Amino acid sequence: MLLTITTTHRPATELGYLLRKNPERAQHAELSMGRAHLFYPEATEERCTVAVLVEVDPVALVRGSGPGGGQFDQYVNDRPYVASSFLSSAIAEFFGTAMSGTSKERPELAETPIPLRAEIPVLPARGGERFLKELFKPLGYEVTVERLPLDDQFPEWGESPYYRLVLEGEVKLQDLLKHLYVLIPVLDDRKHYYIGRAEVDKLLLRGGAWLATHPLREEISRRYLKRDRTLTREALDRLSEIDGLVEPEEQEAAGDAQEEAVERPISLHDQRLLTVLDVLKASGAKRVLDLGCGEGKLLKLLMNEKQFEEIVGMDVSITPLEKAKLRLRLERQPERKASRMKLIHGSLVYRDRRLQGYDAVAIVEVIEHLDPSRLASMERAVFEFARPGRVIVTTPNREYNALFETMEPGKLRHPDHRFEWTRAEFESWSREVADRHGYAVEFQPIGPVSEQFGAPSQMAVFQAI
Ligand code: SAH
């Protein structure tokens, strides 16, 4: 099986620095079920191509007792030819460092999108051409797919289940490698390794932010983890922490499987929402606003509490509002319950009369999505103009990122975060806001507290004085 990666970034031979593999020298590695070779078929200023060739020993696959051995019952199988999880093993073997984004000689180039072209001449693709495109297009590639005939010489035999795939785009090399590493096994039915918890870690490590925001993240995780329900659930929970997103249907499914839900440790985001709910309940508030309500997870919790007589969710973006509408199923609720709830479109950085006169306002995991230059407008719109009795703000605690194993140092938890604050930064901002507008403020950690880094999330509760 073969993979080639080509760049036309000038000078193209810089590819060697990024991959930490000298274009002058071929390299070889022993894998559990065969050998992998790396070489550069071309290396000029204008164009440089690296090739990874994996030779699988089909006999070892049938007979072997080591990892991957004994799982195929026929000597004649497709493994030597088609791209599969073996290719991912070779990518990890040769390009582990490049994939982690570190380059001693070219650190800046490693962080720069460059023109790249990857070609896999034979790839099995469960889900076919459409699925291939749905996998790679959201990641920013031009995707060319060609279905291969069973045999060139006998076209009447028809098509084979294999495809030639070409991806072209301006992306960071580390991202291309991660995309291939995760998605090649997703396209194939058979993985040559045991699927355990370690695979969830690998998926999160290589998937991280791009997977968390991929429209097919659920299907990708499920297939990557060989449809193991518990592991898939765990992966999706952890991805949703990165993304702050869980599809309404997934939540329903979790709700149905009650036993599973009880055993499953509660996710950080659920903890956050329940903490905010508790504070709102304890405050005695009757009319509440959820600013940046997203897909309405907090709204749903609020709706089930009789204490709240009027609940308004506002978001600047239409897509999550539509999801919130689905999640809340307002049309199926009794009129009395549904009439307490309203969804509005608007931005919390602008003064808005609709926001005046509420007992309490929740702003959960929203401020870090605002450009720092807009914070002052948000502050005035909320604390001066809307002026509710209480304001509850939550935001990630950057210090805690050091404890997320799958996070690369210096990165933020979500691609749309404009900043993440330390506890000291959040507290000092909150105290200034409180002083300027006549509020008292108290802080509470959310999630497990580490002595050194604090909790993963932090909350400020402002009370008008
Ligand atoms: N509070 C929700 C969603 C958090 S994600 C929850 O905890 O589940 C952040 C949300 O803030 C997104 O839905 C985004 O659309 C919204 N947002 C970002 N900027 C905003 C603004 N200026 N006004 C209102 N909402 C905003």
TrEMBL record:
Residues 1-239 form the Hen1 N-terminal domain. Its EC number is 2.1.1.386. GO terms for molecular function: metal ion binding; RNA binding; small RNA 2'-O-methyltransferase activity. The keyword Transferase applies. GO terms for biological process: regulatory ncRNA-mediated gene silencing; RNA methylation. The keyword Methyltransferase applies. Keywords: Magnesium, Metal-binding, Methyltransferase, RNA-binding, RNA-mediated gene silencing, S-adenosyl-L-methionine, Transferase. It catalyses: small RNA 3'-end nucleotide + S-adenosyl-L-methionine = small RNA 3'-end 2'-O-methylnucleotide + S-adenosyl-L-homocysteine + H(+). InterPro entries: 3'-RNA_MeTfrase_Hen1_bac, Hen1, Hen1_N, Hen1_N_sf, SAM-dependent_MTases_sf. SUPFAM superfamilies: S-adenosyl-L-methionine-dependent methyltransferases. Pfam families: Hen1_L, Methyltransf_23. It comes from the Bacteria. Its cofactor is Mg(2+). Belongs to the methyltransferase superfamily. HEN1 family. PANTHER family: HEN1, SMALL RNA 2'-O-METHYLTRANSFERASE. NCBIfam families: bacter_Hen1 (TIGR04074). This is Small RNA 2'-O-methyltransferase.
